[in-house]
Amino acid sequence: MIKKNELPPMNTMTTVSEVLNILKERGYTVDFNLKENHLLYDNSMKLRPGEFVVDKHYRFEGLSDPADEAIVYAISSVKENIKGTLVNGYGIYSESVTNEMLEALNENPHSVGAKNKTNIMEEKFNESTPQRPGGDRLMDAPMVTIDLPAFMQQIKQEATWKDSDRNAITIYKTNGMRIVLIALHADAEMVKHTANGIISLQILEGAIKFSTDERTVELSKGQILTLHKDIPHSVFAKEESVFLLTLTTTLEEIK
Question: Is the dihedral of CA 171, 202, 90, 227 positive or negative?
């Protein structure tokens, strides 16, 4: 049983709304908005790095698109005597923030909700969800093998692929890098966005059109594209396509 003053573990909840409801019961009642160098609340009030701590993170993997991924932060400030929550998109759609803010958004190691950490790399597994119940796939370890054909088959068998124009699954994540397998139906488009790290796209099936403000290129099976951070770009599937997205990251991965 979870004590009233404890933050619940991730495996007890499956949705963002469920996390927010429980955190509200624990006193996290303020809604924070993430800005480049501060947290904004009550329209004009600001919390800067050093004025707050993250008591716990809850990460939710997107099911149909990396844009669906989110992290819920449980945040407290002794200075202002407030507690609240921040919901932020993750990965290639996360906000652009300063290095100080990135550091401040790491979980406080002294928090009651933080996990004990050691210098030994732990093997990390994904959390299952109602839409993707097959959890416990290995996500990070000293060595990981990845069966791409099996993952490609999996995402094309899931309801999300049948009900929408795309599907995606994160197949590896560690501090500094994430790998996401993305499948798009013909004519599907990932609208213009920026990535907060260097990315590479490797086309495994089909053909896509990749566009920046300066240039448009067409890529087909066997080709790879790289792109530096913070360059707006879009992806359009000329036919049913599958590609591997590798992203360098700076925000500590959450488990």
Answer: positive
Which tokens is 100 given?
Answer: 């100080």
What are the tens digits of pLDDT across the range 162-193? 888 888 888 888 878 889 899 999 999 988 88
pTM beyond 0.70: no
The pLDDT, as a whole number, for residue 9 is 55
Alpha-carbon distance values, 87 to 20, 31, 60, 167 (Å): 9, 9, 11, 22
Characterise 146 by phi-psi region: left (phi > 0), alpha (psi -120 to 50), beta (else): beta
How far apart, in whole angstroms, are the C-alpha atoms of residue 181 and residue 202?
10
Q: What string of DSSP letters covers 16-77?
A: HHHHHHHHHHTT--EEPEE-SSSEEETTTEEE-TTS-EEEEEEEE--SS-GGG-EEEEEEEE
**Longest alpha-carbon distance in the chain:** 56
Integer-rounded Cα radius of gyration of the chain: 19
Token pair of 196 as six digits: 């907060």
Strand partners, 73: 57, 86
